[in-house]
């Protein structure tokens, strides 16, 4: 989640990596500027963990890497680095880098009111330049609703909206599961101050 641009001069990617190693919090790097990452709600964290657990169970000990919000994703066509909530790469080229991946086939962003427009707009524009990205999931943390941006074989992006009772199909990793697996036991509210139990 983007919080705010830090008041720093433009950095090169090498300067960014060296600088961020000394920081207490993560920062995304877009067009030479660094942006502090804000924290998320309890639901935000729980939803991200559910996706990681489902993906890990499905992919097992295979060839893929599942990343959480600590794993940077580098833009395939520029020197931009982001921290999606969840990412999956099965590309051998991502096994030779240690600080980031470049070729995820699947990215998940859990939405918050402050970042939803960026996740749907600017961030998706960065991600869709990736030649191997197939599925981009935008997941509500306040209602049972998930939007899947799926790239068809002809390169066209389509949007599929999933709601309560639906089965989610991710062709990128050959997985189908019930949306209820993500939202079970969560108290969904637009008020971040209400405690969330379950």
TrEMBL record:
Pfam families: Uma2. Keywords: Endonuclease, Hydrolase, Nuclease. GO terms for molecular function: endonuclease activity. Residues 14-173 form the Putative restriction endonuclease domain. This is Uma2 family endonuclease. It comes from Pseudanabaena cinerea FACHB-1277. Signal peptide: none annotated. CDD domains: DUF820-like. InterPro entries: Nuclease_put_TT1808, Restrct_endonuc-II-like, Uma2.
